[in-house]
Amino acid sequence: MSVPTLTLRQVRFTNKAFWRNPASAFFTFAFPLMFLIIFTSLLGHGTVPIAGKQIKLASYYVAVMGAFAVITACYTNIAMSVTFQRDSGVLKRTKGTPLPGPAYLTARVIHAMLMAFLLVIITAVFGKLFYSADLPAGFSLFEFVTMLFVGSASFCALGLAITGFIPNADAAPAVVNASILPALFLSGVFIPIGDNAPEWVKLIGKIFPVKHFADGMQAGFLGTPFYWRDVLIVAVWGIAGLLIAVRRFSWEPRK
Q1: β-sheet bridge partners, residue 56
Q2: 254 lies in some domain
Q3: Exposed, middle or buried: residue 116 (CB in 10 Å: 0-12, 13-18, 19+)?
Q4: Can you give the pLDDT at residue 255?
Q5: Closest among 95, 87, 101 to 253, alpha carbons compared
Q6: What digits encode the pLDDT tens for the residues 203-238?
Q7: CB 160 within 8 A of CB 79
Q8: 105 falls within a domain
């Protein structure tokens, strides 16, 4: 059986395993919507200046929560679940089967990307129904889908890369959250970064891929300017994550 065929079969298996864990599936999809409801209820009144336009805060949060949903599915979930599987011996046993290791990880990435796309659709529809948010359409659709594809793949690669720095499964939540939460705040995902924000906040936010990914997602939802350099920066981070994952990824529990 060819490697692509084995990979597709593993994608189907991963999908079945995902949906057979109702609690995990529920919180994967409910978490971004829960954050969307909380932030729009507390901070979603009025407007915020984005790229010279006054944007409704409710629409702003629909856009950034779409980006947050992708990061959750492709970075947080990949990093934690793979670490737990590594420490429980699942990865070691999988390596001893006829299924090639790269095919197994590729299947995990494909499944996470599919879930990310579905999460964005759900977030967009939810925002349209309850907050009258705009949906990606017209000439912005191509750029939006490109950023979504590159961003989801890149954050999957970064999720695999961070597993190389997690000593054990108990440390996974702390390491993963510590590595992503500051970037989410500094990139304006939870709280808009206005013109009056300290320059060091803006500078640090521009270094990491979260801001560039969120900006690309906002362009599709809000009609703000789309810059291909944002796609390039996110892709470079993804390539860097892939290279680190190749070097540091472990199939066996760390001592």
Answers
A1: 47
A2: no
A3: buried
A4: 62
A5: 87
A6: 998 999 999 999 999 888 888 888 999 999 999 999
A7: yes
A8: yes
SS (H, E, C) 155-212: HHHHHHHHHHHCCCHHHHHHHHHHHHHHHHHHCCCCCCCCCCCCHHHHHHHHHCHHHH
Rg from Cα positions in the chain: 18
For the chain, what is the total number of helices (H) and then of strands (E)?
11, 2
Determine, yes or no, domain membership for 39.
yes
Within-domain flag for 255: no
CA gap 188, 184 in Å, rounded? 7
Burial 130-159 (b: 16+ CB within 10 A, else e): ebebbebeeebeebbeebbebbbbbbbbbb
- SS3 readout for 31-64: HHHHHHHHHHHHHCCCEEEECCEEEEHHHHHHHH
- Distance separating alpha carbons of residues 212 and 207, to the nearest angstrom: 9
- CA 231/CA 4 separation, integer angstroms: 27
Q: How many domains does the chain have?
A: 1
Chain centre to alpha carbon of residue 54: 27
Here the tokens at position 229 are 């350099």
**Closest alpha carbon to 224 in 150, 149, 134:** 134
The tokens describing 254, both together, are 């760390």
Per-residue pLDDT of 66-125, as tens digits, reads 999 999 999 999 999 999 999 999 898 888 888 888 899 999 999 999 999 999 999 989
